[in-house]
Structures are given as structure tokens and as C-alpha cells.
Specification:
This protein is of the alpha/beta class. The protein has helices at 17-27, 56-68, 84-96, 112-118, 125-134, and strands spanning 5-11, 35-36, 74-78, 100-106. The protein has 5 helices and 4 strands, in the order E-H-E-H-E-H-E-H-H. The longest helix is centred in the middle third of the chain and has 13 residues, at 56-68.
């Protein structure tokens, strides 16, 4: 029996996270719907994406729940994951469950304006610029604790 896997796909909006995550799913014989994303929370029954910043915490909580309760042999999560602490619940679950963890960073030379044009959820260039500034490329050596819970 093969070891279960968790794949975290991270990157800026418009970088191709969802596309790559779906390719990974298909390569493991899974459907596109097997890919978990916090953005899925904002897609209504009519298929229309309606972002509500006040619901972001619930969206991420649902994504974590879905990922940690999935029976798929390969659990794939695609979120921006700009900082290590955002991935930490998934990392801890994978460790607890003895799952092989892979973190894939989708890096791009595209500008913030180009990413704003490409992303399907209408994230503006100024928000992408903020995400780019806080993006921890060396996530393995970054803090697993959220900034507001870190000792001062």
C-alpha cells in the first residue's frame, strides 16, 4: 500500500496554482474537484465567485477541515500560503497521519499588474504587491506561529 500524500501548492494569485494542482490531481487519477482551495468557499451554487473578506477565516477553516478529513490517497491544497504559519495546520496533520508532505511553490516573473490581469478572482495589483512582500520563499525556516501570536 502506498503512503498517503499531502501536496500544498502555493503562489501569488494568477501564478497558476489551481492549474498546477488540477494537473497533479489528474496525474494521480483524481478529479479536478479533489483539489481543495479556500476560494471554493466563495463559489455559490450558481458557480459564481463572490468574495467576502469577513468570511475569510471560515473559508480557511473549511479548507483545513476538508483537507484533514479527506480519504483521498493524495490530498491537494492550492492556496496562496504566503507565510509558513498559514500552512502549519496542514503540515501538522500530514505529520500526525504519517503522510508524505510536498510543498510546491509556483514562482513567476510576472509583474503584479500581469498577475492581477490573469487571476480569476479579481485580486487587484496592490493586494498582490502586499502578498509578494510578505511571501516567505524559505518557508521551512520561517515561523510556524501566526504573527499576532509570536512572542515579542
Amino acid at each position: 500500500m502506498r503512503q498517503r500524500q499531502m501536496v500544498l501548492v502555493r503562489g501569488l494569485p494568477g501564478s497558476g496554482k489551481s492549474t498546477l494542482a488540477k494537473l497533479i490531481a489528474r496525474s494521480h487519477g483524481l478529479q479536478d474537484g479533489a483539489v481543495m482551495e479556500a476560494d471554493n468557499y466563495f463559489i455559490g451554487d450558481d458557480g459564481v465567485y463572490r468574495f467576502d473578506a469577513s468570511q475569510l477565516g471560515k473559508a480557511h477553516a473549511e479548507c483545513i477541515y476538508d483537507a484533514t478529513h479527506s480519504d483521498n490517497p493524495v490530498v491537494i491544497v492550492a492556496n496562496t500560503f504566503t507565510m509558513r504559519w498559514e500552512m502549519q495546520p496542514y503540515i501538522e496533520h500530514a505529520k500526525r497521519e504519517g503522510m508524505l508532505l510536498q510543498v510546491v511553490t509556483v514562482d513567476t516573473d510576472l509583474t503584479d499588474d500581469q498577475l492581477a490581469e490573469r487571476n480569476v478572482h479579481g485580486v487587484p495589483a496592490n493586494a498582490i504587491a502586499l502578498m509578494r512582500r510578505r511571501f516567505e520563499h524559505d518557508w521551512q525556516n520561517a515561523s510556524p506561529i501566526s504573527p499576532w501570536n509570536r512572542p515579542t
